Amino acid sequence: MSHRTIDPKTIVTLGVPNYTHAVASEAATRWLHLSGQVGVAPDGRTADGALAQCRQALANVAALLAADGMTVDDVVHMRIFLLDRADIPALREARGEFLGDRRVASTLVLVSGLVDPAWKVEIEVVAAR
Fold this sequence. Notes:
InterPro entries: RutC-like_sf, YjgF/YER057c/UK114. This is Enamine deaminase RidA. By secondary structure, the chain is α/β, with parallel strands linked by helices. Helices cover 23% and strands 33% of the residues. Strand 5 (75-82), helix 2 (88-99) and strand 6 (104-110) form a beta-alpha-beta unit. Helix 1 runs parallel beside helix 2 (88-99). 29% of the residues are buried.
């Protein structure tokens, strides 16, 4: 199975790392929809700072993918909820570490709060294999 990015010249190119307007999953037979993951470690501790929380949320995503026999290569969409616009560079850094050169369809929404006031980010993922 392969994932094909779609970025037609009829839509503006945003120049955002790891971003594509759309992903087509050819011959996908299994889809995995992850609930929003936050920067909380398995021991229940919330990571300090935006970069650490983004990295932990993505580590949680990786653990869920692995639990279903998938990898980052199966990710086709990310929906990210972020509290502070100033944390976008930290998010992009963590997302770049997680995705490498891969580009996925994604949505970034700035929100006024998450369930726990200590949380700075929540990341939902859709994967296909």
